[in-house]
Amino acid sequence: MEPYLYQVSPERGPRVVAIGGGTGLSTLLRGLKMYTRNITAIVTVADDGGGSGILRQDLGMLPPGDIRNCLVALANAEPLMSQLMQYRFSDGTLAGQSFGNLFLAALNGILPSFDAAVESLSQVLAITGRVLPVTNEDIALEAEFENGARVIGETQIAQCKQEQNCRIRRIHLLPNAPKALPAALEAIRDAEMIVLAPGSLYTSIIPNLLVEGIAEEICASSALKVYACNIMTQEGETEGYTVSDHVKALLDHADSRLLDVCLVNSAPISWNIVRRYAEKGAEILLCDQDACERMGVEVINRPLATVENGLVRHNPGHLARELIELHLQRNIRVVERSPRSITKNRVER
Q1: With contact defined as beta carbons under 8 Å apart, do 128 and 76 qualify?
Q2: Are residues 42 and 132 in contact, defined by beta-carbon separation less than 8 angstroms?
Q3: Coil, strand or helix at 258
């Protein structure tokens, strides 16, 4: 009889750790919660722009924006509560600031640590899984370019890259190797699948790998380790990059054991959308599969893309389904079914 995938309820779904920041991580989480309740999102706290940057400067707190988006993505509260969390003021001194950021700022003032504030808001929103800041320490990003130039500050990197007209060689954290949140390290050790979410390569994904212990725990894990690769290049970070350039940058900031699989979009993008992106210096990411596999990373192509308001995004449901199916294929597969028994075998990678 043909093999089939063993299905489980979300309550008994795989333990998934998703790592990143920005819209890519929250997109992934919206899809994952349909398949498993055992989700831990580990979120960068290096943002220094927008409303988060203002609160960071004024109150000395960690940036709440990416955390807020992840909490809303996993929320099971009334829709009005999610709308309230994302409400952005348009007038007065609060113009541009979101209510959710202010809510987290208030909790941060009441509670002993930023992660405690995040946990408290998680309970208010009745989220699926957990959302954790990667560290409780105040950190900044420094980019080092191939010509030796350096710049400090997440919001300064894109502009400096365009001025220098060369690639980013490496990202550093200031201070160097801040302590990871212990719960984040524990979640990685306990994970059955670890996903580096789509998002800004140098400012959303890699900063997490530079926090002390994070990359080391991922590399030591026996879990399936997947990079959900971006669909388009990003102006100010990855112009001219291929899929293998993304993979190489990740491995260079950790080591060769960081990834097992790179999941790449195969769905076509309309010419009108491609042309619009080209006007802003971005293009479809070229999948150079052989170069990735020479680095020991398997490439899997799946139709993942959708277009929302003229922007190319990962479809949350498609991305999550492909990840869960990949986990099932690599870990739990029913290979035989007879009238007397069902045999479950573990598939070794």
Answers
A1: yes
A2: yes
A3: coil
pLDDT band at 336 (very low <50, low <70, confident <90, very high): very low
Length of the chain as a residue count: 349
Map tokens 């971006």 to a residue: 230
Query: Residue 344: pLDDT above 50?
Result: no
22, two tokens:
């920005």
Structure tokens at 81: 């509560």
CA distance 177 to 171: 12
Number of CB atoms found within 10 A of residue 170's CB: 16
Give yes or no for residue 316 having a pLDDT over 90. Answer: yes
What's CA 89's distance to the chain center, in Å? 27
Q: At residue 20, what are phi and psi to the nearest 5 degrees?
A: 160, -140
d(CA 6, CA 196) in angstroms, rounded, equals 25
Whether pTM > 0.90 for this model: the answer is yes
Fill in the amino acid letter for 99: F
pLDDT digits (tens, 9 = 90+) for 50-105: 999 999 999 999 999 999 999 999 999 888 998 999 999 999 999 999 999 999 99
Which of 3-17, 100-114, 153-167 shows the lowest mean pLDDT across its residues? 3-17
pLDDT band at 230 (very low <50, low <70, confident <90, very high): very high
Handedness of CA 188, 189, 192, 193 (dihedral sign): positive
Integer Cα distance of 56 and 209 in angstroms: 22
Q: Which residues pair with 174 in a beta bridge?
A: 140
Q: Of 90, 78, 210, which is closest to residue 142 (Cα–Cα)?
A: 210
Token readout for 164 is 């220098």
Of the candidates 232, 236, 240, the one whose C-alpha atom is nearest the C-alpha of residue 307 is 232
Q: Is the pLDDT of residue 206 over 90?
A: yes
Please provide the DSSP assignment of 114-156 as one string: HHHHHHHHHHHTT-SSEEEES-SS--EEEEEETTS-EEESHHH
Nearest in space to 103 (alpha carbons), one of 64, 149, 150: 64
For residue 28 the two structure tokens come to 């992934």
The helix (H) or strand (E) run that includes residue 337 is strand 332-337
Q: How far apart are CA 184 and CA 105, in angstroms?
A: 22
